[in-house]
Here is the input.
Amino acid sequence: MLEFNLYENFNPNLNLPWKQKVPKTRGTIMNYELWQTGYKFTSTGVLSVTANVGDVVEILINSDYSYATVDYKSEKVNLSLLFVVIDIDDSNKATLKNYFWAMVDGVDVPTSILSQSSLNILKLILNQKTTALVTDGIIVNESELSKVFPYNRKSETDSAENILKDMFRFLKKQPITIFKNNKIQTLLVSQSWNRAEIKTRIDEKQNIAIENEVITDRSNYNFLNAYVKKDDGTYPTSPISYTISDTNVLINMDNYSGDGTDLPDRRLIKTGFFDKQPTDEEIKFQISKDTTVANLYFNQNYLLPLYTNDLVNVYYQGLSYRGYISDRCFVESDNGVTNERLLFVQGVS
Here is the structure.
């Protein structure tokens, strides 16, 4: 069992900065499966007291947690996990959504903001005037969020959740919510300010499970005939044709001078009509293969512990997987002991 504090919903309309957040009751959670970031899963557990949908649950883990705040400096806090109750049944089994994702639930933003840096996008989304729950800022290494990524959005708006999931995949980071000194902050950091890759080996003793996940689901086309509208508003009679080489390089067939051995064995043609010349990224998105990554689940090795957002090179059965720890899961065993499993996600560029 683990103890928890139960709060009323942290509604930004009612939770003013000077107002102390006081739990309405305390209790214990049993038969739990608790994910720190909620990268893939919601969490569950049986509560010892009655809770309502929308209540905030702060679950106290019997462990310390250190995170970097600036270069060569870190802070240690008592580890706790913050959730929002999204469902509860007659047996008091609650479905819990990680606070961060509950905070941006229902928020849509214009895709015009996606030309900005990740830091600017994040600040625009995590604006307490528009979020569903209280937020008191973020702790990030701003230099790691200075890049602009290709989001390949065609619509004028998209949900904050979709945009942030793409962003965090590019960054190889997941948001951690902490509740400290009456403030709720989002961490996008790990143990060190400037992350260095940690090399480790895992084996069957750690109860390893592997799954492949398609994170970008595209069509099966490999050849695009692009008709780009002319200044007079009409389309040309002949398209510009593009394909992808074996090394994932975009090729304009008008300029190709190779012998074809580096091109797909068979043309799977898609035709597109564009008001203006599409970018290379937009074209590749139309005809690239699905992006698939490996997810590795394994038990924590307490002699060499890994933590959320650590960059890791994992060796397993003669293969090397490079990526990051996207989540930690705390599970109650049959004898009441809390076991810890990690979710490693292979990185993509």
In short: The chain has two domains: 1-214+298-349, 223-289. The mean pLDDT is 91.
